[in-house]
Every structure is written in C-alpha cells, then in structure tokens.
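Possible regression after last week's pipeline update?

I re-ran a chain I had predicted before the update to compare outputs. Posting the input and the new output here so someone can diff against the archived version. Not blocking, just want to make sure nothing changed silently.
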Amino acid sequence: MENNNFRLSVNAKTIIIILLFLNAGYAYKKIKQYNHIKESGYTRERTIQEQFRRRIMKSFGSVEEVDRLVDDMANQKEYIGKLKTALKVKEKQLSKVNKELENANTKIKEERAYLHNKIRGMADGFSKRKDQYGQMGKINEILNDAKSKYESKNTRLKKKIHDLEELLSESKDQ
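New output (post-update):
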C-alpha cells in the first residue's frame, strides 16, 4: 500500500513527459542559436585576428596564401612609409622655394614702389622747375637714366621670377 501513495496517474506522467520534451527542445534551440551567433562573428567570443583569419581561409583556402598576402601588405606599408618620408622632404623643399619666391616678389614690389615714388618725385620737380630750361635737360637725363635702370631691374627681376616659377614647376612635377 505504501507504493500506491507515490504513484502518479497516466495524465500526470504524460504531462511530465511533455514538459521534459519541451524543456529539452527549448534548450536545444537556445544552444543552436548561441552557436549560430558565435559562428556569425559574435565579437566577444573571438578575437579580430581569428575573424580575419577565418574570412581569409574561406576566401583563399590556405594559411600560406594568407601569410604571403600579409607579407606583401607589410612590404607595401614599408614602401608607403619610405614614400611618405620622401614626400615630406620634397614638401619642405617646395615650401623653401615658395618662401624664396614670395620674398623675391615682395622685394620686387618694394623696388617698384620705390621707383614709382622716385619717378613721381622727379615729375614734381619737373613741374616746379619748368621755367629753368637749362636744368630741365639735366633732369631729363636723370629721368631717362632712372627709367632705364628701372626697366633693366624690372626685366632682371621678372627674369628671376620666371626662373623661380620654372624651378617651382619642375619641383612640383617631380
């Protein structure tokens, strides 16, 4: 009679079995979902290097191919570094030439302003001394001399500017 106290009915047994199957199915579903998330790149489960290696293995199929690609990338990175340093040197040279060109340009502007002021001063002197015909010839000679000096300096400075611009364009082309 003691065995009858702990016996369950058929309905209770079927409900317990159904619940066990449901729990097992739910656990299987969650385990499968976890593995799917892990395989699709769940970043907390794998390092970036492992993800990268797995993607490359899917693409190329061998570790040697991956290692060759990594070596090629490293060599290209070194070459780019050397190229970067060379470009920095060229940039410094270009900036130096550019400064020289700007300095020459400012000097030309200053000389031009000085010569214009000198010419204006001479013109004022001519207007004041119109009645002095003898001195006018001397002043004309001075003015012509100043103009020729201005033109010679101006052409020389223009030639300098042209040479510096050519140098700058050559250094940009290189």
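Follow-up from reviewer: compared with the archived run. Residues 112 and 154 are 8 Å apart (CA to CA). Marking as no regression found.
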